[in-house]
Amino acid sequence: MKFGSIASIEYHYTVQSLFLKFLFNGIGALPLAAAQAIGAFLGVFAFLVSSHYRKLFKAHYLAVMAKEQLPVKLWSAAAGSGMLFADSLWAWKNPKKALDLVEVLNFDTVVSAFNEGHGMLMLTPHIGCFEVIPRIIARHYPATILYRPARQEWLNEIVESGRNYPNLHFVPTNLHGVRQMTRALTRGEAIGILPDQVPSGGEGIWSPFFGRLAYTTTLPGRLANRHQTPVVMFTATRKKWGTGWLMQAKRIEPFSQDPQIAAQELNLAIENAILRAPEQFLWAYNRYKHPTGAELPPQE
Question: Quick check: is 242 in a domain?
Fold first, then answer.
């Protein structure tokens, strides 16, 4: 490739990065209702202009709505995916305002879990404004959160600066990060995992998710069973336009010692959480992909 071509690509990437940085920072500076309106527009826009995005979205969303015999609200779901990102950006830029807009139900579930003395495992799927959940917990207890760094350095800068918050510690999805989470549980603290993310090859097993095999993390079951740690599923669903979120906590029964059964139990818990507000879930995420290094899925 010629130098001019390389320079052109680098220039295009720089301009695109600066534009997206400006957009992300701009959304955080708006009132919540305006930020959510822009998010809804961008969600619908992405659905309309990207055939790849639309194909993934429709395949996942429509299949689940048919399986669960729920009404199809395709445009609401498309808008909701965009609002999910807008909610996160707004919460990062306005931490105090965001937490003041969170209505917390059944926090006694959290207190009861910590009183057992083995820490707590937070499960927070990509629903609504899941980013506010660790901060609510961190107001009362130290928390270590597992996250997967973005490939783009500029995006990592935004995410890491936005997630910076007292009493919260973020660790990457590698052996070092898992060790830090283990130490946090030993200290009786909280740890957090996004359970609906596809793990790297060799770190999961194939298990049904809404009736279709999905490569599923085994980490929650392993950590919880090793430390007798209470597991709590959290959601923070969007309330009326611009008014904030409703955070709920639901204690999950201990995972089976059998990894295959534990993965099924985990996926069922995620399904139940999604069905509380299906139009607020991130349907365009490729939950059924085959990660590099993973064994082939068995015949369904």
Answer: yes
